[in-house]
Structures are given as C-alpha cells and as structure tokens.
From TrEMBL:
Gene designation per UniProt: moaA
Annotated organism of origin: Hymenobacter saemangeumensis
Alphabetical keyword list: 4Fe-4S, GTP-binding, Iron, Iron-sulfur, Lyase, Metal-binding, Molybdenum cofactor biosynthesis, Nucleotide-binding, S-adenosyl-L-methionine
Cofactor: [4Fe-4S] cluster
Cofactor: how and how many bound: Binds 2 [4Fe-4S] clusters. Binds 1 [4Fe-4S] cluster coordinated with 3 cysteines and an exchangeable S-adenosyl-L-methionine and 1 [4Fe-4S] cluster coordinated with 3 cysteines and the GTP-derived substrate.
Entry protein name: GTP 3',8-cyclase
Catalysed reaction, written as an equation: GTP + AH2 + S-adenosyl-L-methionine = (8S)-3',8-cyclo-7,8-dihydroguanosine 5'-triphosphate + 5'-deoxyadenosine + L-methionine + A + H(+)
Amino acid sequence: MLINVPASSVSTPPASPLYDQHGRPLEYLRLAVTDRCNLRCFYCMPEQGIQYMPRQELLSYEEMLRLCSLLAGLGVRKVRLTGGEPFVRRDLMPFIERLVEVPGIADVSLTTNGVLTRPHVPALARLGIRSVNLSLDTLNRERFHRITRRDELPQVLATLQALLDEGIQVKINAVVMEGQNIEDLIPLAELSRELPVDVRFIEEMPFNGGSHAATPASLPWHHQRIRQHLEQHFGALTPLPRPAGATAADYTIAGHTGSVGIIAAYSRTFCGSCNRLRLTPEGGLKTCLYDQGVLDTRALLRGGASDADIRAALAQAFRNRAKDGFEAEQQRPLHQLSFESMATIGG
C-alpha cells in the first residue's frame, strides 16, 4: 500500500532504516490519536469506561505531525492511525490530509470500529488510503451488542461495504474469546469466500482496563487451536508468504477469494521480527506493546527540545528495546497489564 508522494517531496532521499540492538528495523508507527471510544468492548475496558485523559494532555495534531516527520527521518515508512476510535477525535480528516504529505511516509492506514467511518470512506480513498483494519468480532447483532455494549452492527457492516465499494483493502480483526464468539469464527471466515478481505483472528490480550484478570489460564483459544478449529471446517489452510515484520500468519482456503490470518498476540511468536513502534495519545513512546512506555515525547515537545534533541532521544530509546514481549512484561512493576486498556496504548 503506497501513498502518492507530493511532487515537493519526491527529491527527499529516503532515510536508512534504524535498527534496534537486536538487529530489527524500526519502520512502522502505530499512532493513537485518542484514548476515547464510542464502544465499550468488554475485553478492552470496563462497562463504565476508563478515565479519559484531559484533552490538553493529548498530543495536538501539530505535535503528531512533527513527531511523524522526525520518525520518517529515522526510517519510519508506515503510519497506522489507531485509538481508541480514531474518528471520535474531531478534525481527523484534515490531519490525515497533512499526514499523507509528510516526506518519507509512504504508507498511511488506519484501524477503526467502523461505527463513524462510513461518511469518510470516499475521502479516504481520494487521499490514497488503501488499507483499513475493521474491528468486527461477530456477525450476530445480539452478540455484537453483548460484546461491545452498543447496538451498532448495521453501521459497521455498512462501513465494510463502503470500503469494498471504494476498492480499499479491508482486514477484519476479530478477537477470539472463549464463551463469547467462538460460534462466529466460521461465519467470519466465510466472508473471505466471496469477498476480497483478510479475516484475522487475534488471541485475546490482557489489556482490558482492569475488567478481568489476565493470566495464561484465561487463554484457551491460542493460535494453534484457532487454526485447528478452522481446518476442521475448511480443510487444510495453505500458508501465504509472511513479509518481514508481519504479525499475522496468513492462509488461503480452497475456493475463497480472500484469506484468513491468525495473530498470536498473547503467545508473541512474532517478536523476533517486530518492526513496530507505538505512540500513545499523550505521547508515550512504546517500543513494545507490553512495555510500560520508554520515552515521554510530549515532555520533549512542550519543553522546547530541538529536533536534534528529540531525534537523539528517540534513537536512544530504540537502542534499549526489549528482545520480546515477555521481557518487556517482566520489566513492568507488578506485571499489572490488565489495568491498562487497549484504548490508551494504541490498539
């Protein structure tokens, strides 16, 4: 997925990839533009929601653009906008218009729950956004309401259709949860039969805002079992080539137009090739989903740091990266991951 680079930036030479101390390039930024969300998915936050940050504590769009420009100079090529729900934040589309013009950023995409997205789909297509991850854990309206605590499935499905109509690549993200949506795995995978979508099944992670305890015993549906379940219905899955840095193991199913994928997010089988960084809504840099944050970029931005100062601080953080998610988790005080919400750390 490539964004058309404006003529003014064509002459900008690409930066050499920056590597961490384990030899992994850092090329992909997941940028959380807000911690707010219009759904209340039980695996992400408690029913009453979380304590949202005051708006003045969120990075401004100008601050985000400055950081993206600096990171592009250090080798970041892809930016995925996440949340919370990105479209809950006002003026998101003007921000995207500016982001796609940042020299060096060749790929801009986003992850959304689809509730507020449909009216913006034509503009996204015009801006060259060619890939959208759509969160969708069930096709059953009653179960959708139970999982998200909101009755919004029709709006999400309308967004899915609008994205396909515009020719935007859609990856459907479904969190696999014991006792909640196991009966939906096959119907969701069936979407790939006729539609050019990649349906990706994700191991449940412990970032739930404290709504329930996160322990290894709470993960009966690990990546091997998900694959076995799919193969019992569809027959053998054929692996697709796995690009460097990919989190999903993707497969084709005989006779299907699209594909299915499995993301071992809790088992963390892909850490050895991870090329991702995260920026939380308040500017916390995370070099691993499971770390507690390694750099306060907001303090640098608002403290008068020069571009050179910020680049040096970023590079230093990259050179002190945990080797995998397990090491990052062990370095956290008390390992209390469940008291974070995915809405606060960038999806």
